[in-house]
TrEMBL record:
Highest taxon in the source lineage: Eukaryota
Name of the molecule in the record: RNA polymerase II subunit A C-terminal domain phosphatase SSU72
Function recorded in the entry: Protein phosphatase that catalyzes the dephosphorylation of the C-terminal domain of RNA polymerase II. Plays a role in RNA processing and termination.
Keyword Hydrolase belongs to the record: yes
Annotated GO CC locations: nucleus
Top-level EC class: hydrolase
Keywords: Hydrolase, mRNA processing, Nucleus, Protein phosphatase
GO molecular function, one term: RNA polymerase II CTD heptapeptide repeat phosphatase activity
EC id: 3.1.3.16
Similarity annotation: Belongs to the SSU72 phosphatase family.
Amino acid sequence: MKLRHAMVCSSNQNRSMEAHSLLKREGFDVSSYGTGAHVKLPGPSLREPNVYEFGTPYKQMFDDLRRKDPELYKRNGILPMLKRNSTVKLAPQRWQDNAADGSFDVVFTFEEKVFDMVIEDLHNREHTLMKTVLAINLDVKDNHEEAASGAKLALELCLQLEAAESWEDSIDDIFSWGFITVILCQSSQM
């Protein structure tokens, strides 16, 4: 594969990790990140989420939730999700703290507020070397079924980008769908 891809959601748990897992299995050069202040997972109620720091290993979260209420977290899909995540990478990473290390060609986000944060971050970096980055937002609800559908759509778009001789020349044909937000940005790269 010729392009470097980043998948970004709020907590680097469901949507970005579903896409990361799928693209990794297909042989893409892919990383994933979250943009939130903390990693939040559903808890026993909306007012009681499970909150972790970025960098907390997925396995540690899995063990913690399995100890708290294994039936609840198995039933709502959190334990299987964390198990999947731990096979993809060690721990969730925060975009603002880690993505500057990577030189990405394509960045997928899965909700508008995450997209806005990524664009703001790309524009605010210290400019040493400018490079065009294709930033794409797919609005995907944060549930397991929608995350799987969003990952398949991201894969389809990545396959088209990889197949194009020059994605810059083919972008209008590839992204002719109206529900996708696309921005080309100039980003500093190390």
